[in-house]
Amino acid sequence: MQTLAQLQAGKLRGIKRLALAEDLSTFPPEILLLADSLEVLDLSNNRLSSLPAELAQMSKLKIVFASNNLFESLPEVLGQCLNLEMIGFKANQIRQVSAAALPPQLRWLILTDNQIERLPDELGARPRLQKLALAGNRLSQLPQTLSQLHNLELVRISANCLTECPEQLLQLPKLAWFAFAGNPFCHSTDNPTQVPDIDPASFALGEILGQGASGIIYQGQWTQTQTQFPLDIAVKVFKGQVTSDGYPQDELNACLQVGYHPYLVTPLAQVAQPQSLALVMELIPPHYANLGLPPSLESCTRDTFPAGFRLSISHIDKIVMQMQDVFDHMHNKLVCHGDLYAHNTLFDQDANIIFGDFGAASQYHMLSAHQQSKIKKIEHRSLQLFIDDLLSICREQDHTDPRYLKWRKLSQT
Known about the structure:
The protein has 413 residues and is an alpha/beta fold. The protein is built from six helices and 18 strands. The relative contact order is 0.09.
């Protein structure tokens, strides 16, 4: 994070990335002096409501983030930035998205948690688009032209007002990560498999173990003697009314619907109070570690891994077979996870896995048999890509192993 003082003093000449968060209400004109070098501009967490027309002169600009500001429309100047690929305007007050605001090279569009009621048909004329996040808006329909987005891989349309399942998305050849809960077309009155509802005073929160879009996971400690639960627990405390993936209640319902599986995080109890929604889970042993890292700006939708990290084909084989079992279990319960990734998977030195994070999960038992089949096929692509990502870090000496060749073939069919 740089400072406005550095920018105004001319100390940031030649930089490729600029991030400013200083309660700005106007666009600092000195940014335009970085046109010869600037590729990434992050103005999130300010009070901006407009961008200057001169931004179009920044020919090297590839990424613009302006989340948590006061924009009421997506700035049309973005559409004039010919090399702009990634746009992130989460948690503004955007109602209007015009065709003119969509740059021709658009690859990543994040408009989560706004007030958008419709999108322009021209969005379907952005063939490079891979990632589209629209959760938490007021969309009642999607453009039919989205059927033309043959490179679209990740879609978030949860927590909107869609009354019909968007068939134009179900047909897309590369769609692999799909979140759609919290819309009228998939509303359910069925109660998922229940766990006990407990008083939040019955446990205390300890150190933070991790956090994501939908909540914070703490180590928990019982404040009262418990006989029905394990001593060691973790507690996920959900945050906000809507996340980048949808409503917290939908996440909780999907997790409970899936229920117990040996390779999934085990839910024990819930705090169902709307203002303090939480899920109590078994504490994962400390010898488990993240299998992967989230996608980067460069990889867009694909997981990343630490430099030099390698797995044997024996471990990959075991991990994949466990994940296939998890996949079958979830879809037997008619739940689409929506985020089947290595970075949501924990593993130990013996390649035992624990899979979790149902933030993007959607129940789909209320859809037609044809639609259910399409949903399962979409998520199967994410399983194939999960396998492909693991094979990318397989030890080179294992590339002739029959198991490697088997999984390589499966990941490509």
